[in-house]
Write a structure and sequence with these properties.
This protein is mostly helical. Helices cover about 65% and strands about 5% of the residues. It has two domains: about 5-295 and about 420-445, no CATH class; about 305-400, Glutaredoxin, CATH 3.40.30. A four-stranded mixed sheet has the order 4-3-5-6, with helices on one face. Strands 1-2 form a two-stranded antiparallel sheet. Residues about 450-460 have low confidence and may be disordered.
C-alpha cells in the first residue's frame, strides 16, 4: 500500500491542529455566553437605528431635500456595528484568551510545544481559530442586515464590505493582543487584565490626544477607535490596512516569542526588541502611504468629480497655513470639508497648523486667528471660510486654471424608509437566544471526535 507523501501528511496535520483549536473554542462557555449577550445588544441597537431612521424618513416626505442626507451607512450600519464593537472590545478577549490560557493553566502547553509543529504554526492556528470565532460572533450583525434587507432597505456592497473588513481587522487585532497577553501571563485572569489595558488605554489615548497635531497627533492615530472611524466614514486607506495587518502580525509574533517555556529570558527580550523595532518601522512607513479610496456611495469624502479631476492635475506644491486651534470647531469643519479631501487628491500638499499646542482662548485675541492662507506657484490668498465652495475657487485662481463646470446628476438621492422596527425585538431577544441555547446544548452533548495529529514521519499521535 502506497504511503502518503510528505505534503499530504503535513496538510492533514495542519487541518487536525486547526480543528482542535476550533473545537476547544466551541467547547468553552466564553464564546456562547458572548453570543447570548451579543444578540440583545445588537438587536436593540438595530431597533433604535431603524426607529430613528424611520423618523427622519417620515420628515423627508414633507421636505424632499432631507432625503439626500439619509444614508444607511450612517443610519443603520454604524449604529448596529456599534454594539458589536463594544462586545468585541470588552468580551471577545475572553474568548481569544481561552485559545492559549487554558493550555497554560492545565500544563497542556508543555506537551503541545513538543509536537512537530513550529511555534509560529501553533500561534497561527490559534489566531485562525480566533478569526473563526469572530466570524461566528458576527452572525447576529449579519442577521440584522438581512432583516434590514427584508424591509427593502438599501445596502451598498462597497460600503458594507469596507465596514466588515475594518471590523474583521479589528477583531483579529484584539485576538492577537489577547494571545500575546496569554503568552506572557500565568493565568487567564491576568491575561484579560493585560488585554483590557490595551483596549481601554486606546480609548483614553483617543480622548486625551484627539485633535492634536505633530507627534501627539501621530500617536493619537494609534488608537483602535480612530482606526474603525476611518472605515465607518466610508474610506479604504492603504496605510490603515497595512498598519493594522502589521500590528496583528507583530502581536502574533510576540506571542510566538513568549510562548515556548524553554526559551531563556534574555533571548525573549532580544527578540521582542527586534520585533518591536521592525513593527515600528513598518508602521512609520505605512503612514507615508497616501492611497485612500472613497467607497461611500454619497462620496462624502471627496469633492465633486469635476473638481477631483482638476485638482489631480496640480503638480506644484500647495501650502496651506491654518491659524486655528486644534479643538476649534471651525478647524474640525475645515479638516472634514477641505483639508482631508485635498490630502487625498493633491499630490503635493503641505498643511501647517500655526496654533498647534495653543488653546482657543489663548489664540482668539490674535488678529490673524481664524485665517486660512493658501499658497501655490508663488502666489497666496487668504480666507476665513471652512467650506470647499470658497476654498476651491481660491486654489483655482492661484493655479491660474479655470474652475470646472459642475455636472448635473451627481447628487446623492438618499434612501428614506419607514419600517416596522418592532419585528426585530422578538427575533433578537427570544428566537435567536433560544436557537443559540439549543446549539450550545447540542454541542455540549455531542461526543467529541478528535482526529489524529500527524507527525513528520507519518505516524499518528
Amino acid at each position: 500500500m502506497r504511503s502518503p507523501d510528505k505534503t499530504t501528511v503535513q496538510q492533514a496535520s495542519l487541518r487536525a491542529l486547526l480543528g482542535k483549536e476550533v473545537r476547544e473554542l466551541l467547547s468553552g462557555r466564553a464564546l456562547w455566553t458572548m453570543l447570548l449577550l451579543l444578540c440583545p445588544l445588537v438587536g436593540y441597537s438595530f431597533f433604535q437605528a431603524v426607529a430613528l431612521y424611520g423618523e427622519a424618513s417620515a420628515a423627508a416626505r414633507d421636505q424632499p431635500q432631507v432625503a439626500t442626507s439619509l444614508s444607511p451607512l450612517d443610519g443603520i450600519l454604524v449604529p448596529t456595528f456599534g454594539a458589536f464593537y463594544v462586545t468585541v472590545t470588552l468580551l471577545f478577549p475572553f474568548v481569544a484568551i481561552r485559545a492559549l490560557g487554558r493550555e497554560k493553566e492545565t500544563g497542556a502547553l508543555k506537551l503541545l510545544v513538543q509536537l512537530p509543529y513550529p511555534i509560529p504554526t501553533l500561534v497561527g492556528a490559534k489566531l485562525a481559530a480566533v478569526t473563526i470565532a469572530w466570524l461566528i460572533a458576527v452572525i447576529p450583525v449579519a442577521a440584522a442586515l438581512l432583516l434590514w434587507r427584508s424591509f427593502h432597505g438599501h445596502l451598498n456592497p462597497l460600503e458594507t464590505s469596507n465596514l466588515l473588513l475594518g471590523y474583521l481587522l479589528y477583531g483579529q487585532l484584539i485576538g492577537a493582543i489577547a494571545l500575546f497577553a496569554a503568552a506572557i501571563s500565568d493565568n487567564s485572569a491576568t491575561a484579560a487584565i493585560v488585554t483590557l489595558a490595551f483596549t481601554i488605554g486606546s480609548w483614553v489615548l483617543d480622548f486625551a490626544l484627539a485633535g492634536q497635531s505633530g507627534t501627539l497627533g501621530w500617536i493619537s492615530r494609534l488608537s483602535l477607535t480612530q482606526a474603525l472611524r476611518t472605515f465607518e466614514q466610508g474610506l479604504l486607506s492603504a496605510a490603515l490596512v497595512l498598519g493594522m495587518c502589521a500590528a496583528i502580525a507583530s502581536f502574533a509574533t510576540l506571542a510566538a516569542i513568549w510562548l515556548h517555556p524553554g526559551t531563556s529570558l534574555h533571548k525573549r527580550l532580544a527578540r521582542t526588541i527586534l520585533c518591536v523595532g521592525v513593527a515600528g518601522t513598518i508602521l512609520a512607513a505605512a503612514t507615508e502611504l497616501r492611497k485612500t479610496i472613497d467607497v461611500s456611495e454619497d462620496n462624502r469624502n471627496s469633492f465633486p468629480a469635476a473638481d477631483q479631476r482638476a485638482l489631480a492635475r496640480l503638480d506644484e506644491p500647495l501650502i496651506i497655513t491654518v491659524h486655528l486651534a486644534p479643538e476649534d470647531p471651525r478647524y474640525v469643519d475645515l479638516q472634514r470639508n477641505v483639508l482631508s479631501k485635498l490630502e487625498r487628491i493633491v499630490s503635493n500638499v503641505t498643511i501647517h497648523l500655526v496654533t498647534a499646542g495653543q488653546s482657543v482662548i489663548g489664540s482668539a485675541g490674535e488678529e490673524s486667528y481664524g485665517e486660512i492662507e493658501y499658497s501655490y506657484g508663488g502666489q497666496a490668498a487668504k480666507s476665513r471660510s471652512t467650506s470647499h465652495r470658497e476654498a476651491l475657487p481660491l486654489i483655482y485662481g492661484l493655479a491660474d486654471v479655470p474652475a470646472p463646470t459642475p455636472q448635473t446628476g451627481e447628487d446623492y438621492p438618499g434612501y428614506p424608509l419607514v419600517a416596522d422596527e418592532w419585528i426585530a425585538l422578538p427575533w433578537f431577544f427570544v428566537a435567536f437566544p433560544l436557537l443559540l441555547a439549543v446549539a450550545w446544548w447540542w454541542w455540549s452533548r455531542r461526543a467529541p471526535r478528535i482526529p489524529p495529529l500527524f507527525l513528520k514521519n507519518g505516524g499518528q499521535l
